[in-house]
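Reopening this ticket.

The earlier resolution said the output was attached, but the attachment link was broken on my side. Pasting everything inline this time so it's all in one place.
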Amino acid sequence: MRKKVINLIFLFCSCLVLTGCVESRILDELTMVTAMGFDINENGDKIIGTINVPIFQKDEPPRNRIITAQAELQKSILQIMQESSANQIAMGSLEVLLFGKELTKKMGILDLIDPFTRDPTIGTAMKLAVVDGEVKDLLNGNYGVRGNAFFISNSIDTAVEHGNLPMTNFHRFLTDFYSHGKSPYVPIIRKESEKELEIIGVGFFRYGKLVHQISMEEAFFFKLLADKYSSGWHDIEIDGQKAAIQNILSKREFHLTEASPPYEVTVKIDLHGVINEYTGDVVKDKTFKKLEKKFEEEINKRGLELVNKFKELDIDPIGFGRVIKSKNRDFDYDKWRDEYYEDLKVKIDVNVDINEIGIVE
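Inline output:
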């Protein structure tokens, strides 16, 4: 018993010593950054950094304070911003990291992202996005009642969960970038007004630079191929009428149907949906069958168009290289980009089951 008491006292004292070694940081004495972004100046020789700091007010939505600086290096930008802030700038609450489109096309984002990968206070659920326009202009808006960063992050989450945007966050971007057999992608957002912004598409990267983008309508088909499970919306026209089909759940599987070069992969997609809106009077059984067949044909056609475009650009956001590697131990990543990818044959096997009617009835 005495020995147990001595051990407890020793443990308590050790905790006191360790607690004294931890640097204390009082929130009221910190400038908590929730959104940060980068643009490139007109001459293309300097980076413009912008941070968003929410100023919380009693019984009112937070006010968005914007701090901007310009320098040749990201580290210098943070130092200049610190001089403009009375309190220490802290990145632990960073929810969104944004990049102006011109910057992503001209200089890329790898050097700018690198410091965030080394910062243990940055969460992997942080969202990345390309801004169609300037980051500074977008962050100067006032969106929602919980601050700009929350609004942007929540908009992306909603588009992933209920819309056509495939799964995306900082962790996914880094995983795809450092993987030999997959290319990263991020959403593209645009400021529509001082209080509104919109997710307008998906941007694809090659060696850290933006090389291609697709619309949110095209993103529906990309999501079917890229995400194991997905949901979303798409409009189909049949017999002069339009139907809005909601993808309740789709499941995607890859099958390596040719295990040696030229490789062949079959993508099996099972989609279960509902007709959410229909411009006609009554949805008959034969209409169901027509819609299912046309939807299958369109998914096959549009999916293969995306695959061929990705091959043309030498990007692999669907992850065919990773798929083949997981099923073939002799797969050679070094030859994948140079030889095998351009000869890859892809087949899409789609089964659409529309078994419910929404507001039509």
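Reporter confirms the inline version is readable. The longest strand covers residues 241-258. Confidence is low (pLDDT under 50) at residues 4-27.
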